C-alpha cells in the first residue's frame, strides 16, 4: 500500500461483531478480463443464490464463466517477508511487501483435470476464495464491486504426484498473488441462505464419436475425458429435446425425427433425408456440461 500525505494513521477501533476470515476450502477461478477487456467483478448488490451461481458456471461466454474447484486439501501459503534496506548504522527502511503464495492438493480429477487447469497458464486468471464459513472472498475495489484476486500468470503451476505405494496420487497446485494485490483490500460477500458454495462442480467436457452415418441418420456416442482411453465415461439420459441439429452446408435447421438411446451414452438419430457430402452440426444442451467439442465435430454425410 502506498502512503498518501496528510491522511494520518488509520483509526483502530473495532466492533464486537467482527467476523474473521477462516481457512480457505475452495476456489472459483475466472478470467481477469472479459471478452470486451473489462475486469470481471460482482456488484455488491447482487444476490448470490443458487440460480446466480449455476448461471455463472454455465455461462456460454468463457470469458465470463466461473470455474469452481472445491474439496481442496492441505492448503498452505503465506506472504513472504517484506524487503528492507538496512544502513551500516542499523537503520531500516521499508522497500516492499513480499508476495503472497497459495498451495494446495487436489485429490480427485487426475490427469483430465490436470489438462484443464494447465490451460490457466494461457490467459490472465483471477480467483475468488471460499472459506470454511462459506464466505465469498475477493478484493474490495471501493467502487461497489468485489473483484477476484489477480494471479501472477507466470507462477501458476499444477503437477501430478503419482502413487508410490505409500501415498495416493494427487495434483499439486500453486500460484502467487499478483504483487499489486494488498491484504488490506480483502473483503467478502455472503451467499444467499441455504447456498453452499463448496458444493458446486465445474462443467464437464463432452466429446462425440459418430458412426452408422447415412443421409437419413447417424449414431453419436457422447463421452467425457475420464476413464481409460478405450472406455471413456459416457453421458446418458438425454432426450430429443436436449438436441438441436443444423445443416451447415445448407444453413438450415434440421428437425430431428427421433432419438433413441439403445445403449447408455449411444444415441441413434433419425432425420429427414439430407444431401450427399453435406455437413451437420449437433448441439446437445444440459446443465453442468460443456459441449463445445461436440459442436465443432461435424457429422460428414456420405
- Total number of beta strands: 25
The run of helices and strands is EEHEEEEEHEEEEEEEEEEEEEEEEEHE
Estimated radius of gyration: 25 Å
Distance between the termini: 65 Å
Largest sheet: 8 strands, antiparallel
Ranges where pLDDT stays below 50 over 5 or more residues in a row are: none
Mean pLDDT: 92
Q: How much helix is in the residues?
A: under 10%
Proportion of residues in extended strands: 35-45%
Cα shape: elongated
- Specify the structural class: mainly beta
Instruction: Note the total helix count.
Output: 3
Q: What secondary-structure arrangement, pairings included, does this model have?
A:
Layout: E1 24-31, E2 42-43, H1 50-57, E3 67-69, E4 72-76, E5 83-86, E6 92-96, E7 101-106, H2 110-118, E8 125-131, E9 136-140, E10 145-147, E11 149-150, E12 157-161, E13 170-176, E14 186-189, E15 204-205, E16 207-214, E17 217-228, E18 231-234, E19 243-247, E20 252-254, E21 258-263, E22 266-270, E23 279-284, E24 289-290, H3 292-296, E25 299-300
Parallel strand pairs: 15-24
Antiparallel strand pairs: 1-3, 1-8, 2-10, 4-7, 5-6, 7-13, 8-9, 8-11, 9-10, 9-14, 12-13, 16-17, 17-18, 17-22, 19-20, 19-23, 21-22, 23-25
Amino acid at each position: 500500500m502506498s502512503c498518501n500525505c496528510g491522511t494520518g494513521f488509520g483509526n483502530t477501533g473495532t466492533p464486537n461483531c467482527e467476523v474473521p476470515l477462516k481457512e480457505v476450502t475452495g476456489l472459483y477461478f475466472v478470467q481477469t478480463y472479459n471478452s470486451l477487456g473489462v475486469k470481471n467483478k460482482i456488484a455488491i448488490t447482487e444476490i448470490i443464490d443458487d440460480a446466480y451461481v449455476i448461471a455463472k458456471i454455465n455461462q456460454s461466454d468463457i470469458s465470463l464463466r466461473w470455474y469452481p474447484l472445491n474439496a481442496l486439501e492441505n492448503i498452505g501459503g503465506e506472504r513472504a517477508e517484506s524487503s528492507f534496506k538496512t544502513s551500516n548504522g542499523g537503520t531500516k527502511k521499508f522497500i516492499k511487501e513480499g508476495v503472497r503464495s497459495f498451495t494446495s492438493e487436489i485429490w480427485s480429477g487426475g490427469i483430465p483435470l490436470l489438462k484443464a487447469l494447465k490451460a490457466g497458464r494461457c490467459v490472465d486468471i483471477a480467483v475468488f476464495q471460499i472459506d470454511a464459513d462459506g464466505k465469498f472472498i475477493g478484493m474490495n475495489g471501493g467502487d461497489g464491486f468485489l473483484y477476484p484476486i489477480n494471479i501472477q500468470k507466470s507462477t501458476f503451476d499444477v503437477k501430478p504426484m503419482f502413487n508410490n505405494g505409500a501415498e495416493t496420487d494427487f495434483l499439486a497446485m500453486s500460484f502467487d498473488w499478483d504483487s499489486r494485490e494488498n491484504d488490506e483490500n480483502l473483503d467478502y460477500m455472503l451467499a444467499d441462505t441455504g447456498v453452499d458454495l463448496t458444493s458446486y462442480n465445474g462443467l464437464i467436457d463432452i466429446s462425440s464419436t459418430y458412426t452408422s452415418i447415412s443421409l437419413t441418420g447417424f449414431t453419436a456416442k457422447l463421452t467425457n475425458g475420464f476413464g481409460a482411453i478405450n472406455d471413456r465415461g459416457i453421458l446418458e439420459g438425454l432426450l430429443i429435446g436436449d438436441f438441436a441439429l443444423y445443416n451447415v452446408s445448407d444453413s438450415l435447421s434440421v428437425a430431428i425425427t427421433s432419438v433413441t438411446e439403445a445403449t447408455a451414452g449411444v444415441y441413434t438419430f433419425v432425420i429427414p433425408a439430407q444431401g450427399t457430402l453435406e455437413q451437420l452440426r449437433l448441439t446437445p444442451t444440459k446443465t453442468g456440461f460443456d459441449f463445445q467439442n461436440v459442436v465443432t465435430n461435424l457429422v460428414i454425410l456420405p
